[in-house]
Predict the 3D structure of the following.
Amino acid sequence: MKLKIALLPGDGIGPEVLSQAVKCLEAVEESFNHQFAFKEAPVGAVAIDVTGDPLPEQTLELCHEADAVLFGAIGDPKYDNDPKAKVRPEQGLLKLRKELGLYTNIRPVKVFPTLMDQSPLKKEIISGTDFTIYRELTGGIYFGEKRISDDGTVASDLCEYSEKEISRIAHLAFKAAKNRNQKLTLVDKANVLESSRLWRKVVAKIGESYPEVALDFLFVDNAAMQIILNPSQFDVILTENMFGDILSDEASVIGGSIGLLASASVGDAAALFEPIHGSFPQAKGKNIANPVASILSAAMLLEHFQLFEEAMAVREAVSKALEKGVVTPDLNPNTKYGTSHVGGFIADNVVDSHDDLNMNDENIGLGKSTII
Ligand code: IPM
Ligand code: MG
């Protein structure tokens, strides 16, 4: 298959983790005979530095022309601590989501059996966790009208949803639930918010055409508690933009590191793949960031184009790295491996995924082949 993939490394650790995902995609290209054409463009704080714009026109054009976008991370502390900043890196990502029509953000949450002990939660609580968050991505409070009074003492952000915005993601979430464990939980705040009551009404109606899917409703405060108390009760969680943002960071705790969680953002005509973690500026350039979330985002990209065997090869290579302890310091403070080594190990194992070969554990970390 021929694919044009736009690479947007962005800020902080974005470039480091993204290049590991590219290594893995190149390994897939080589082993499965595909042609991926990569083109890179700036976004976020690095783009502001050069052009004054967090999403330069050329970057947006490249994304429109591409079959898929692979995104690194966005954000820089110099803007976080400056409430008066007129341009912010995050605006680049939000505009990109809006312009590409990426209204559904899919965030799978699963525990790797080998990492059970990494979680701050008890094993018996997290075992069996396997759910996916369907987060609405181009509406709600993120995109509603923003106001600040002339004297700067009163501010507001409007949370608005239309039936159309709710129903298009709801259909995707119901379809996903149908193919998974047939359960869909709508998370909202319908006891307080008018917009949530519209979500309930629209989703309940759509649910009638998916009789095989059991639909239930949870208020977001209760959902935040249930995710930590009993995460295995969930299959597909459907929710609006900001609740999804918050709950997905919370859910990342279950698996032991936010550095493991990937995401796909899809619309009718475009798709973007990115780790859910941020730019982690403290780790920038230190070769310590976990590349797994970015690599698993690349696996989601492959699945998006029905390249299931290829995606499986990447996932198995990731599992092998975790099993063999080829991990970054977020998963093992005493590890001797950094970002590029972990990425290289995973890519090597993608290349060799065809062959049922044994690992030569002694060569792990020596930069030599681990295949014997
Ligand atoms: C995410 C991030 C973004 C969001 C930021 C960087 C704008 O937190 O993708 O979850 O809030 O959507
Ligand atoms: Mg977030």
Residues 365-372 have pLDDT under 50 and may be disordered.
